[in-house]
Amino acid sequence: MLEVYSWPTPNGHKVHIMLEECGLAYRVHPVDIGKGEQFAPDFLTISPNNKIPALVDPAGPDGQPISLFESGAILLYLAGKTGRLLPADVAGKYEVLQWLMFQVGSIGPMLGQAHHFRTYAPEQLPYAIDRYTQEAQRLYGVLNKRLAHATYLGGADYSIADIAVFPWLRSWKSQGVELADYPHLKGWFDEIAHRPAVQRGVAVLADARRPLTDPQAREALFGERQRQQR
Ligand SMILES: N[C@@H](CCC(=O)N[C@@H](CS)C(=O)NCC(=O)O)C(=O)O
């Protein structure tokens, strides 16, 4: 049984969707990042960056346990374990990997900052709001152009690149974006949103989801607890 340490956020959803797409058996251990549970010593041993998601596979390589943090690494591990959602041929594989890296390096961090400055920052900072909103809109444009010429981000087939990007776009409103302005991307988004495994994946821990704007959550996510990790 795979052990998943997670919370219902975009990075958590990436892993939940992958597990559902692959039909793998897993148990979810909620890590309430609004209550500071990401700083628990036991969790830090498997996720040293105090972030969800993390995965423990008791039956890893050579039958030995393996533990992983970083959602992109977890998607790659599960693709390797199952032989699913990542092409085996070199060209196809790197077509997918470049869009996976684009999500990890740009989509996640930049859309996260747009959401932060528009929703969570204690004061309105027009420079930061403009900078990250415009960057979010530019990134949506990059995806839209790609999907004008490809059915999926990695090419002809649905892959871990689509699974990585999709959960980030569910919050387009709070990133200052109008999804309908990107018609190729919207068509792709709507199709993926209807996949049964995606619907099951985003439903994981859905009851626990709440806005992370209360003082306890602000302190855990943006306050002194973070600086104590230095
Ligand atoms: N690069 C990491 C980012 C993970 C991440 O930012 N997780 C957030 C939730 S989406 C988190 O756990 N935040 C808690 C914290 O920063 O203390 C990944 O892709 O796994």
Describe the protein's architecture and organization.
The protein has 230 residues and is of the alpha+beta class. Helices cover 55% and strands 8% of the residues. It contains ten helices and four strands, in the order E-H-E-H-E-E-H-H-H-H-H-H-H-H. The chain has a four-stranded mixed sheet with strand order 2-1-3-4, covered by helices on one side. Strand 1 (2-6), helix 1 (10-22) and strand 2 (26-30) form a beta-alpha-beta unit. The model has no long low-confidence stretch (mean pLDDT 96). The structure holds glutathione (GSH). Glutathione (GSH) is lined by residues 9-11, 33, 38, 50-53, 70-72, 108, 221. Residues 1-86 form the GST N-terminal domain. Belongs to the GST superfamily. This is Glutathione S-transferase.
CATH class of the largest domain: Alpha Beta
Pairing-aware structural class of the strands and helices?
alpha+beta
Please tell me the overall pLDDT: 96
The total of helices stands at: 10
**How do the strands of the widest beta sheet line up side by side?**
2-1-3-4
Order of helices and strands: EHEHEEHHHHHHHH
The tally of beta strands, per DSSP, is 4
Distance between the termini: 34 Å
Indicate how many domains the architecture comprises.
2
Architecture of the largest domain, CATH level 2?
3-Layer(aba) Sandwich
- Helical percent range? 55-70%
What is the CATH topology of the largest domain? Glutaredoxin
Content of β-strand: 5-15%
Radius of gyration: 18 Å
Question: Mind describing the biggest β-sheet?
Answer: 4 strands, mixed
- Uncertain segments of ≥5 residues (pLDDT<50)? none
Shape: globular
CATH-level-4 superfamily name of the largest domain: Glutaredoxin
